[in-house]
Amino acid sequence: MLKKFRFHLLFALSLVFVMGVYYISDFFERSPVASCNIPYGFIQTKEAKSYTFAEEIVVQPWRGQHHVYALFQIPDGYQHEYLFRLKIPGEPTQCGGLMPLDKNVLASIPRKQGYYPVRGYLNTRIALNLMIQGKLNQLKQPQNWQLGYVKNN
């Protein structure tokens, strides 16, 4: 009886230890949330800045990282900002990072002639938080995803 108790106790302590190590490692490996207050994320210019909205939005956070994103198309000869803005009414503005795509990459949207595609990623935790609040429809609205760009000098 005592051996069985020791075995169960040792098993339970081992399980708690493994789960604790997993939680701590997951905590330190989380990707940071992009702050909208960082100066290098947005182009400061005296010239006119234009804005575009998402052409396609993918919201599948249950598939893990990099499955909440928007596709933007920027005119050739223009430089896009380094962060995009997600403005959902009643929520603070969120920002996400951008990844240029190869012009030859086939996306599910037709590529406009004279434009290049850019993909903007939103942190999965932000998307899940908005979904829990019942704001999935607002998350899928293209006018809520905004990316600025300026003419190259």
Task: Tell me about this structure.
Keywords: Membrane, Transmembrane, Transmembrane helix. The chain crosses the membrane at residues 7-25. The chain has 153 residues and is α+β, with helices and mostly antiparallel strands. The chain folds into two domains: 1-30; 39-151, no CATH class. 27% of the residues lie in helices and 29% in strands. Strands 1, 2, 3, 4, 5, 6, 7 and 8 form an eight-stranded antiparallel beta sheet that branches. Strand 2 and strand 3 (68-75) form a beta hairpin. The radius of gyration is 21 Å and the shape is elongated. The relative contact order is 0.22.
Descriptive key words:
153 residues; eight-stranded antiparallel beta sheet; membrane; 29% strand; single chain; alpha+beta; transmembrane helix; 8 strands; transmembrane; 3 helices
Global outline: elongated
Name the poorly predicted regions: none
How many helices does DSSP assign?
Answer: 3
Strand content: 25-35%
Number of strands: 8
What is Rg?
21 Å
What structural class should be given to the helix and strand makeup? alpha+beta
H-E order = HEEEEEEEHHE
Provide the helix percentage.
25-40%
Give the integer mean of the pLDDT values: 84
| Major beta-sheet overview | 8 strands, antiparallel
The count of domains is 2
User: How far apart lie the N and C ends?
Assistant: 81 Å
Keywords: Membrane, Transmembrane, Transmembrane helix
Transmembrane segments: 7-25
Compact overview of the structure:
This protein is α+β, with helices and mostly antiparallel strands and 153 residues long. It has helices at residues 2-29, 124-132, 136-139; strands at 50-53, 56-59, 68-75, 78-80, 83-86, 94-100, 115-121, 145-151. The chain crosses the membrane at residues 7-25.
